[in-house]
## 1
Amino acid sequence: MQTALRDYYRAFNQRANWVRNDLLYVNELEKYEQRLIDEWEHAFAAMEDDLSECIGVTEEEKIKEGRRLFSDIEKKDIRIRPKCQEAFVMRGSYHMLANQLKVGWHIDFYDRLKQLLNM
């Protein structure tokens, strides 16, 4: 958890610095986030496929698979630019997307999100 908070903080500050100093192209952050979401969608769909083959999946198994998805995503190398080698940018950006409810790690993410939005 501590490393996730550190990545979030560092990515937030780095991205704010880029914006503040006008170092990004128009919509570059939005396009980058969409690439991250697209990669997450593929990984999430694979997790859904794996779990749909199982009968009677327990909450513990769902949590375990969500953690595996999170770990797999963190190991990817999706850069905003080829020369931006700081891995915290990608990892922290995923945390930002999760805070915005654009990505999630639990298999029931969409169902839980719908319940929250219907309240």
Note: The chain has a mean pLDDT of 94.
## 2
Amino acid sequence: MKTKRTLQALVPSLLIPLLVPLGALAAPSITSVSNSTLSNGQVVTISGSGFGAKTTVAPQFWDTVENQSAYSGLANGATVPTGSGKPWETQCTWDGGACVKYSTTASEQRGLSTATYRATSTTQGLLEGRRIAGTNKIYVSWWWKPGTNPVSGDHSSKFIRLSSSSDVSNKTMSWTQMHNYIYRSDTGYCNNEGWANWNGNVGQWNFHEVMIDGASRTYSLKINGKYLANNSSWANCAAFNFDYVWMIGWDAGGNSPPAITSWMDDIYVDNTFSRVMICDNANFSSATKCEMQIPTNTWTDGQLQVTVNQGSFPTNSTAYLYVVDANGSPSASKQITFGTSSGGGTATIAPPSGLKVVN
């Protein structure tokens, strides 16, 4: 009888893995792309499996600078407008209020871009205030170029602050030139501060990424495809939702912070880790340059569409397409080639229907 009861208890546990959908266990897989030669601005279909669902297809926010209608008609060097109906709520509030400019100077552009953000010799080259729909996850990527080394000196200066819109200044994540941390005013530091210097390239464009999971209380940071923090725990604090970009750019502080010239472009914000990227290496972990592709029209477990963003990849160059799922797991790569551009500038998308944008 004891043997029989043991088998009765064991058999259900053996069957459990068989009852879990295979898509929930497997990383995304790309079987085909509607075009092997891609053009900037082109809409392409990617088929495969394990993509998962993306309730709101478009990213919560995609700012290439030139795709913002609020900047239409701005002259080169004009102050970036902020406030109601604009992409950002405020800018540079602690250093005169007009630090970030609109630049169309050709030598300052990245790849096919025709406009970029520029902040000249300031400690406050930043944009402030962008709220998204909260889901317990936030993903932010952007390109940033410093004219001088941001690490030198005894200061604490931030590249980004993310917050809960319910308590912006008291529930925050900060990434500085020397460390990174999450903080709650009612608890203190939520993790052992990650002491790690910014290791990007001075005088060049650098791809920054932030991924925060408010449910599991972990976060990751990457520069040019390499982890600066990888699934760092902030479990010392009660969980809270990150749904607000408090600031992004160069927020210098501490002892004698440097006033630097910097540029910023292609800011991508979403409330899921699900995304599509085109990178410079057939191995995702070895990639040093990735361009965000813009989900468009549809995203199902087996098929999705993106508007191609060629970014800084040269025409006729070879690159590698990836689909990343909601857990942050990438597919194997699919090789593509960039052909003739089908439109000037970085890919622009129309707002998705039924999505309320909160400023």
Note: Residues 9-24, 343-359 have pLDDT under 50 and may be disordered.
## 3
Amino acid sequence: MTMTEQALDAKPAAIDKERLRLKYQEERNKRLRPDGNDQYLQIKDQLAHYLEDPYTPVVERAPKTDHVTFAFIGGGFAGLATAARLTEAGVKDVRIVEKGGDFGGTWYWNRYPGAQCDTASMVYMPLLEETGHMPSEKYAHAPEILAHCQRIGRQFNLYDNALFHTEVTSLDWDAAQSRWIVRTTRGDAFTAQYIGIGTGPLHVPKLPGIPGIERFKGHSFHTSRWDYDYTGGDPRGAPMDKLADKRVGIIGTGATSVQCIPHLARACKELYVFQRTPSSVDVRGNGPIDPDWFADIATPGWQQRWLENFTANQAGGSAEEDLVQDGWTDLSKRIRAKVMLLPREQRTVENMRAVFEDSDFEKMEEIRNRVDSIVGDAETARNLKAWYGQLCKRPCFHDAYLQAFNTPGTHLVDTDGKGVEEITENGIVVAGKEYKLDCIIYASGFEVGTEYKRRAGFDATGRDGIKLSEYWAKGMRTKHGIHVHGFPNVFFVQPTQGANLISNVPHNLTEAARTIALMVAHAQDNGFKEIEVSKDAEDRWVELLLTAVGRMIGGPDCTPGYYNNEGREPGPAAKLNVGYPAGALAYFKYIDQWRSSGQFEGVQFR
């Protein structure tokens, strides 16, 4: 019996919906702040040391002044998948520009203890079939994911042309030559006919805007720059033996903390977990992948079938089987099972929303009950319960996080939604009480909702001098989330205004990579120098996006977080951060037909 069947068969006790709505609203209101995303500090000046790379030394090199066919900004999954597809299409001089010391993107930086993907490896890790790699477990840990990124780099010969520890500072269109001038922090001024941009939302660390953050005299670091020299241990799970006599505080209880806190709890003399909002933490159910089973299923085209099956199960489609069978697909199957009980004529938007709410109430009650069944201390258990919809924040899944709070020396400091009050020379203050610490770890995540230029670190100047920051001042405007009018030969690789599949972001990236490779190959084969979406096609795509019914993820009634602009009323720009109205599965089918036709409707080749 599947998880969904068990849940439906369980006949849960009646839920007081109005009580829950009021409780959710009360908890949301506690956490609302007028400063929204501005509550976080931009890491610069005296805080710049939080950005230093602790993993790879910078190698000196001469500036580049050459020309390449395709330059991709960002060495994570987006850059690797696009470069791989371009290489397969015959483009041999692809250059990846990456601020880290190797390929990996988010997975270059995230080496904290316990780091792993929260979507199944079989669908999360790109190009498994092309590289012949079998993930070792259902949810691979960070070292394996980083090694896979390096494997892609080697297999597709991407290292020789790559520029590491390099950040782009400007992109300028040279209309006379139909190419882009790329300038960087390493003095480079090279040209590229085509540009790919996959800087992603998870690469610029942020710090909480807590008074006194710079005064602390102990040790401190951000989880994306984990300091193993201080803690001991390594990303593969060796004991952090240097913390045995340390009092450590960690600020933040999101997805990163859920993964690293169990390791800290075992290592520290005293661990203080400072919580503003608890995460919802469901069962993970990780385990090794059986090589014999994998050999049976890994027939030609297997990963694409798994990708499509996951999306069909998770993003509102329908499938006869669920290949992944995890918390993501269970969430959607529960809703779909209830919808199917409605007579067809009653499947209105209003009724669908009611079904979604009912299903979510039941699931979140299960998650809260799970806390009681695991955490021994009643007050700690009460404070670890999440009072919001499961998709208000990134859902978490873990089988050791809640258990960590039963470890002697591990203390939950709940701030009742207010956050940390102050940081002193000696520790952290909450509700007037100082907690003296040797080390503070910031698990405060990455900049997601800030404006694009700030996150990317550069502006692009396109045709007739138009700057991307100006063109997008009132919101992102694209066709397919890939093409922008006025910026010929530039391709964006990211989910927004495309499928916008949040549960498995790499699927968005690999589909965009296929599209870009086909278009560049078409241009190369036919002697075209420029590829640009028409203004009319871009406008029509944006108009289509705005017909979408309101989003289920991170709605305005949710507890503040990066899914809903930190609880602020979405302005015109935020309302454009949406996906294809018919959903992710429909988008992937649409874009496959669009590119396969060879017509590339709405895009001009010159």
Note: The CA atoms of residues 59 and 165 lie 8 Å apart.
